[in-house]
Amino acid sequence: MAAICVFCASSRTLDQRWLDLAAETGAEIARRGHTLVSGGGCVGMMGALADGARAAGGRTVGVIPQSLVDLEVADLASDELLITDSMASRKTVMIDKSDAFLTLPGGLGTLDELFEVWTTATLALHAKPMVLVDTDGFYRPVLDWLGALADQTFLKPAGLGLLTVTDTVSAALDAVERRLT
């Protein structure tokens, strides 16, 4: 099966519904027989995601910079915990270790990871599936802005088309699996 990297928030102050979404995402990845690749944190949605995958019998790979290990937020229960020297090298390792990418709600770090993997896809550095889970329209303002960029030719429509947008985790994983077969 596939190694699916999930980008999501690590904030400790989120509403429970976002933590539940992350836990269900991890569990669904595991139920489908995939390996979870994450940012290697044990807090917020990132921690709930990994816990959900393990609770459903899944394998987890965490990728985390040493600076976050030093802050004691590393997911030490990961089946494989890869420690990098920087946030930039963390993204490189996550991209290299993954067959597909799924983005859940998150903030600046989540958007940074999404845009990194998306930008590298537009440059044809990889052709891995990328799916944005737009639960409850969370990303609608960003998607509207990106559409406006394309309208003004700052973003090519083909580049915009590389990202699949769904509103559920199940639909997101279905899209990943279709692309991988």
Helices, strands, pairings?
Elements (H helix, E strand, L loop, with lengths): L2 E5 L8 H16 L3 E4 L5 H12 L4 E6 H5 L9 E5 L2 H11 L2 E4 L4 H15 L7 E4 L6 H12 L5 H4 L2 E4 L2 H12 L1
Parallel strand pairs: 1-2, 1-5, 2-3, 3-4, 5-6, 6-7
Beta-strand percent range: 15-25%
- Low-pLDDT runs of 5+ residues are none
Work out the radius of gyration. 15 Å
The number of helical segments is: 8
Which structural class matches the secondary elements? alpha/beta
Q: Which word captures the global form?
A: globular
How many E strands? 7
What would you say about this model in short?
The chain has about 180 residues and is an alpha/beta fold. The chain has helices spanning about 15-30, 45-55, 65-70, 85-95, 110-120, 140-150, 155-160, 170-180; strands spanning about 5, 35-40, 60-65, 80-85, 100-105, 130-135, 165.
Overall description:
This protein is α/β, with parallel strands linked by helices and 181 residues long. 48% of the residues lie in helices and 18% in strands. It is built from eight helices and seven strands, in the order βαβαβαβαβαβααβα. A seven-stranded parallel sheet has the order 4-3-2-1-5-6-7, with helices on both faces. Helix 1 (16-31) packs parallel to helix 2 (44-55). The model has no long low-confidence stretch (mean pLDDT 96).
Task: List its salient traits.
18% strand, 181 residues, 48% helix, alpha/beta, single chain, globular
